[in-house]
Design goal:
Chain lengths: ~425, ~425
């Protein structure tokens, strides 16, 4: 297709009229489609059905060590669940603390602990040191930004690139300001860009020279095994790199089975240096009796080991891949060459990142909303919900059935075209629902 | 038996020699018995075996509303679990937030939230107001005190009586000091005294005139349905009383199924006024995706309703009652009338409270330890682990098999006699393990 910008103004206007006619027809269909959240669909959830009832006798609850998983005990989780996460993340078991169904909760608690207690006994609590700041690579994950906002941490935007956060900017910022205490990272199939950090990025992060001696990288490896294709992206092991750089304590690693088993009933973990782990446990012991060991056991009984998880993830991929490909094909067919937008083609994770170069994200969102297609809130991928260029949209193709998804993607494309043409022509389209 | 104090000194000494001979024999038995923690035993855990596998198909996971319990959503828990807790606690469903497997975690979070955010939007965070203090009725629950200690909250001891905390003291303290922000209460079958607060105590608590406008009662109703006898103690509904007193927001109510289903894998709740609940949820939404809905579903499928819970608790009582009665019988037989100690005869809960009037709790603990009988650490029932009179011991009869428990109780009685006689005679007994 020809770039819109190469069309004569009257051609642009007639395109707008054409797309708008399409849009009015779409609006009349009474659609109710949701591409807003990275939720597995029902077929994906059904993949783990056998896990639901796999633990059904008292004997199964008693470990070889004699420990009864039904009773109190084991603050940091059962050994077999530690091993499962250790093998998924390629880390030693001793560095793992197994959590409950919400890795978000582990992250929130990690930040809150650093604020209240400090990251290690030798450091002052962050909150006693002044106004805490975090680096937030953008676009990024809204719930990370939510933790900072809720806890009163100032967020500093850092641009994301196709190799990870802009490391020149990161290095410069952390070198001079001792109140910059952390950075949020989704290092593999990043939310929403689908970018896997390059080896260089991982090495530069692991060896960051920070003005703050108590700086931490919040490494949310949410999509560690969430490949869409047999050949998945490879992420360098940040724990190994941090040790090489003489900074073993700099990183907290998180992951969960939320998008492996069940989003609401998975298990999660935080992994870190022994020094970090020991200190975290010394505080956790006041905080909780430990997480649900029976659910850890269910996961271990069902997946058996990391290979079991990887096999299972291929089944997820078989369901997800066609959805991603369908959306990308529609985008290419409808929007390719128009010169008004660009999008990522991720090889894993849950999102397609969509940028409208003309800066009309909010308009697209509203047009979609009126047509019955729900997108992630505009700005959600930026701190304080504020996308300074009004450009970024996050597409989540996982949840709707594929036929609905295709419809939603087509509606979306129409809305993108309208928003772009409105911008170019300066003409607002006729109101949507007259 | 004659009171020891009425014996002539040489009689006291010969009693000491006699008990010590017994003790040496006991020490040689190589015992390894544990009366230290309020843990259900294996038979109690087996009572809920059917719950383990009760949820075993995908269809069961989908609620009538269409909500899929396997997926994300429902920050405050599934309606049926709210209803279950509401009926147990005699509260409206709307006042319930369902938590995960650790009510301790809900309590820690409630305190931490008040420190960081304040109890309601109109109040400053506690930590910005100065040094926060809590009232701690003693003897009390060590993990409550642990939360305060961990979060740097100063603990003020208030004596427990047979009707609850000494309310004259409580009222006086809270009236004058605006930095006293909370009080810990286990209002039914209190840990460790087994006391259920009188109606007057509940009413006085509910209508407390506090210098702090943002004061909260932490009402840990851990043993709400944990009666040992058909006729259980009755606890007045503090929410109703607080409303009557015009102080609906003053109380956070907690409970859990830890000692109903499985200690490590139960479900819990926090209940409070709508204003409190709304504010708690507004912060929780940054903190977690919500708790495990499948485990809530398991509980609802298994227990069905509050009557189901009550029926189930009778099965627990049938296992626990003989243990409590066996210990109490041995205490009465061995120690009755000696005039050196007293103990409670609880009608529910998990503990027998034991006070040695002569103030030798630490010595009893050590003697028991050397004989292979583990007790709760001395002082654990007081803030900072410090029992100012070295008098209080907490006996937890639930975990050991009954024959072992009887042995442990006899060892304990021998140790009590030795400690008391040592005090009276001023003569240290011969070293235990020579």
């Amino acid at each position: 297709m020809k770039p819109y910008s190469s069309l004569a103004p009257e051609q642009q206007y007639s395109e707008l009229i054409k797309e708008h006619k399409k849009y009015v027809r779409l609006c009349s269909m009474g659609l109710a489609l949701d591409m807003s959240r990275g939720k597995p669909d029902r077929d994906q959830l059904n993949l783990s059905e056998e896990m639901l009832g796999i633990l059904n006798s008292s004997e199964q609850c008693i470990l070889e060590s004699g420990l009864d998983c039904r009773n109190y005990g084991l603050l940091d989780g059962i050994p077999a669940a530690k091993k499962l996460f250790a093998d998924i993340l390629d880390l030693p078991e001793e560095n793992i603390i197994v959590g409950g169904n919400s890795s978000l909760n582990l992250m929130y608690d990690a930040v809150a602990r650093a604020l209240i207690y400090g990251v290690l006994p030798e450091y002052e609590p962050w909150m006693k040191q002044g106004e805490v700041k975090f680096l937030c690579p953008c676009p990024g994950y809204d719930r990370h930004f939510g933790i900072c906002q809720s806890l009163g941490i100032e967020m500093i935007r850092v641009p994301m690139t196709m190799t990870g956060p802009d490391m020149d900017k990161v290095e410069k910022l952390v070198a001079s300001d001792p109140m910059i205490k952390g950075i949020w990272c989704v290092p593999k199939y990043s939310n929403p860009m689908g970018v896997t950090y390059s080896d260089e990025t991982v090495r530069r992060l692991a060896s960051l020279e920070t003005a703050a001696p108590d700086f931490r990288i919040f490494w949310d490896d949410a999509y560690a095994v969430h490949d869409l294709y047999d050949e998945g992206d490879k992420l360098l092991n940040i724990k190994v790199e941090a040790e090489k750089a003489g900074k073993p304590d700099i990183v907290y690693i998180f992951t969960s089975t939320s998008k492996i088993s069940f989003p609401g009933s998975g298990i999660s973990c935080i992994a870190a240096s022994m020094k970090n782990v020991k200190y975290i446990k010394s505080i956790m012991t006041y905080q909780t009796i430990g997480c649900d060991k029976l659910n850890m056991l269910r996961h271990v009984l069902y997946f058996k080991d990391a290979d079991g998880v990887r096999t299972h993830m291929k089944r997820h991929a078989a369901l997800l891949r066609p959805k991603f490909e369908a959306v990308l094909e529609i985008f290419e067919h409808e929007l390719g060459g128009l010169g008004v937008c660009e999008w990522t083609k991720p090889r894993g994770g849950y999102f397609i990142n969509f940028d409208i170069t003309t800066g009309s994200a909010r308009r697209v969102f509203e047009l979609c909303w009126d047509a019955g297609v729900r997108l992630t809130s505009v700005g959600a991928t930026y701190p304080y919900g504020n996308d300074p260029h009004d450009r970024n949209l996050r597409i989540a193709p996982s949840y709707p059935p594929i036929e609905e998804l295709k419809t939603a993607a087509k509606v979306f494309c129409t809305c993108v075209k309208i928003a772009a043409l409105e911008r170019l022509t300066g003409a607002p389209a006729p109101a949507a629902k007259d």
